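Catalogue entry: protein
Contents: sequence, fold tokens
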Amino acid sequence: MKLRHVCAVGVALVSLAVVTPGPAHAGQGSPSGAAPTLDYEFFKAHVQPIFLAEREGNVRCYVCHSQTTAFRLQPLSPGATSWTEEQTRRNFQVVERFVTPGDPGTSRLLRHPLAPEAGGDDFHGGGRHWYWRDDPEWQTLAAWVKGASSASAATASGSPVRIVQTNSAGDNIHLIDPTTNKVMTVIGGIPVPHGAAASPDGRQLYFSNEANHSLDFVDGDTFQVLARVPLSGRPNNIAIGRDGRRVYVAIREAPGAVDVVDTASRERVKSIPIQGDVHNTFMTPDSRYVMAGSIAGRTLTAIDTRTEEVAWVLEFENGVRPMAFETNADGSTRRMFVQISDLHGFVVVDFATRREVRRITLPDVPPDQQNTEGLQGSPSHGIGVAPDGKTLWVTSKVNSHVYAYSMPDLTLLGGVATGHTPDWLTFTPDSKTVYVANAGSNYVSAIDVASRTEVARIPVGQVPKRNITMVRAH
């Protein structure tokens, strides 16, 4: 069975030996030994989104429970994707009537949609939502019933770092805790997500939505969609500067553009014309330039972030794909490592002179071990320099490997087998782990950088590709 599209933190919470009760919903704390109270803020952030979650082969809870049932949720306002504060409080009052505080097993909220073989009721008019009690949705609800609060959720989640993994053939995004290598949150309701970015403090996330041609704003606490900003065309990858003021969106439609979205006003404020439709936008480490790569135009365009105008253009013999950067001591960009179409490797570009200085081809494997399907013109797609600047990591779709090169000499250190069609990668801030999205295997490989070994395989959604690392400020 497939995991539901939810905001689930219960996996972490149930591992706590003692769950700290949150404040009582009536404003009073629970006396020692009494049943735990139901925390409103936890309900708002983690329970309520379950009712709006899309379900493959099934309707959302909201569809039935906004009608005439005893468990009746507030109707959403026209055009709204989430409830207002007043509506949420009314939902809370309804839902708590179907809960036995402290006892998930006897709470109708958890028992009714659960499969009978897992201890659920024989019949639920909305079908079976959970087939086992280990389902992240069920665990989230169980944690709330046992007294989990927003504070205990923050404690249980451990590290402020999250690996944000989009699923290009799905409608959700998975957030992975690198301390446990488990999915801690699933953001639903964003069909065909492509690029991802986070605000500097991690309190807001941004995703390009290919289905709706929008840039979607997601709250970093509730993981609900806050806004959808219309774009000038179908978006691909996105980039954000260190100040978090603007998101630069690659527009993959002729004649080609980079849309500029202001994060404060939540408006598209500009479209910068580019020679050829744009597949990827990347920000240089100093946030001085947005680099826009075009497959059709075979160009790499530098946009000055101070003027938001094109500064210069490099031309290649093939389309421009992902890229990574090496910095000088002052933080400015020294070299770019650029992947291009039909090259099983990458091009090294001197940033100051804007010239190719080297070209590196990835190792070969025997023909019977090579993958020839799903390459999409990019045998090598996914590249990144570790935050400590000591290694460069490059994926090979052909070999189902990721390769490490020493910096700055670019000596091959070795390779690590991954899943099918490794497509993108990102690092933990301490450079100890690199996470590789395996588009053909629907899981993410966690690879120890020092030993170059795969230490975990993390199941995610359908055709995972782009990923980023988000750090939440305390």
In short: The radius of gyration is 23 Å.
